[in-house]
Write a structure and sequence with these properties.
This protein is mostly helical. The protein is 58% helix and 0% strand. The model has no long low-confidence stretch (mean pLDDT 82).
Length: 112
């Protein structure tokens, strides 16, 4: 199976108007931003350069989704949904009822 990069490069040669990926011009940071005497990192190939951008973009997209699904409100809705579905099926709901009693005990009169 061909990698996606190879497929894109082959299609770019077919169309002819797309140039090969190239590294941007190497620039040094202004002196006021440089700390220490070490060299800055710069990718060796265009593939490395665009791979870093690709994974940064993926992280920017995925991190908020993971954060949203770990919120306490979402987890509470999951427990309530599980309570409703299990009660419709006639399954044991003691774990979910304990959660509701702990979190919403003051608002509800729970009796078995």
């Amino acid at each position: 199976m061909m990698s996606r990069l190879k497929v894109v490069l082959i299609k770019s040669k077919i169309h002819g108007t797309v140039a090969e990926p190239a590294l941007p011009r190497w620039k040094r940071a202004p002196q006021r931003y440089e700390i220490g005497e070490g060299q800055g990192s710069f990718p060796e190939t265009a593939n490395d350069y665009y791979r870093r951008i690709y994974f940064e973009a993926l992280y920017v997209l995925i991190a908020p989704i993971a954060e949203r699904f770990n919120e306490t409100g979402f987890l509470a809705y999951g427990q309530l949904e599980s309570l409703l579905l299990k009660s419709l099926k006639g399954e044991d709901v003691s774990v979910e009822m304990k959660f509701i009693e702990t979190n919403y005990g003051d608002d509800l009169n729970i009796q078995f």
